Structures are given as structure tokens and as C-alpha cells.
Amino acid sequence: MITSTVYYEGGLHATAIHVRSGKSIETDAPVDNQGKGEAFSPTDLLATSLASCALTTMGIVGNKNNINIDGAAAEIIKHMASDPRRVSKIEMTIQMPKDISYSDAEKELMERTALTCPVARSLHPDLIQEIRVHW
Predict the structure, then answer these.
(1) ω into residue 118 within 30 of 0, thus cis?
(2) In terms of CATH architecture, what is 42-134?
(3) Which of 15, 74, 93, 116 is 20 to 30 A from 55 via CA?
(4) How much is the pTM?
(5) What one-character DSSP code corresponds to residue 40?
(6) Per residue in 67-81, pLDDT tens?
(7) How many Å apart are CA 13 and CA 130, to the nearest integer?
């Protein structure tokens, strides 16, 4: 089944439609590469996908193990390199809810889950992933 359809709108903008839900994501080229920065760039989405995947898989594992992560948030810093132009490093800081106490075993499980989510495992090994979890 088709996951998404992406339409080039012109002006370095594209719209991706998620086929199953009909929801859309718009992209623009970044300001350092001829864009206006009016939306996520494709490489922003790559970096953001790492955070979304980490939190989602932590939620799945949390549900299976009765560990509440509601309210967790991740901040992303994306670093670009040139020649060839690519994402060279992604820094992700996950802030866990401060009003929930976690055991050492739960912390270890959640951190391992974040580090081994499907997106993290799919990225090229040359791309540096720095993932920190703040409890």
C-alpha cells in the first residue's frame, strides 16, 4: 500500500499527503539553500522523525510495561555538512515528565528504547546521533 504522495508545488515547496489519513505536511527549502524557511525542510523532517520515533516507541514500550511517559518532549538540533550536503549530526534531548518518578530499570528500558527506535537504526552510521534523556 502507498504510504504517501508528495506533490511539488513550485517555489521550492512540496506537500506530502499521508494516504491513509489524508493529513498533510508541507516543506520548504531551508534559507541557507534558496528557500524561505516557511516550513520544515526535508532534512528537518529527517531529524524530527528521529524524535517522533523515539517518543512513539517509548510510548509503546511504556504501555506494555505500565510506564507513563505522557508529557515527554524532545528537542532537536540538526547539523548540516557540505560536500556532499547532508545531515551530519542530530542532537536530541528528551525531557521526561518531572512529576513522575521512574525506577532505574524503567529509565534504562526507556533510554535503550529511544536509542534503538526504527528510525535510529535506519540512519546511516556516519550520521552522529547524540541522544540524551533528562529525568
Answers:
(1) no
(2) 2-Layer Sandwich (3.30)
(3) 15
(4) 0.93
(5) B
(6) 999 999 999 999 999
(7) 30
